[in-house]
Amino acid sequence: MKNNIFLLAFSFILFGCSTTEEMKINPRSLWNAAEPKPFENHIPERITIHHEGTRFEKGGDAPKHIKNVQTWGMGKDRNWADIPYHFLIDPDGNIFEGRNVFTTGETATEYDPTGHLLITLMGNFEEQEVSEEQLNALINLTAYCCEKYNISSETIASHRDHSAQTVCPGKNLYFNYIKNGYLKDKVKELIK
Ligand SMILES: [Zn+2]
What we know:
globular; alpha/beta
């Protein structure tokens, strides 16, 4: 028993800073995802942060909202293959699986999302603040994706860094956590 405790403590020292083991990602089945249409494949090589753009509060029905985003995106307005993002994070810090990471995301603006791994925070950060839970989940998920898909933390940026046609991911997310390097620095601390 004593040895087991020692081993447990030792493995925490060895692996405690790795985010990979602890990441809880809710599968597509949890939000009742429809099957995707045929899609373009790609290899993710950079991380691009978005906001979903609709005001969304803590305690809201995230699976229902995500399903609505997929239904709208695959409908006649956009005719996308699937929900546009690879991962979504709600204001309570829950992480949801979006489209397959090895398929190219979608955008309504002029940049080419090929090679971009798209993480979106649910909410509108022109109006809302990022909650502590949501921010922590963003840091952990971004570090996890950098490690798992062998993506450099130097590539972490946001939609508006790649497109002149949008304020996405909203000023309160962009200026407080992305433009000033905060997210990048926190991710680097986790993966070094
Ligand atoms: Zn965006």
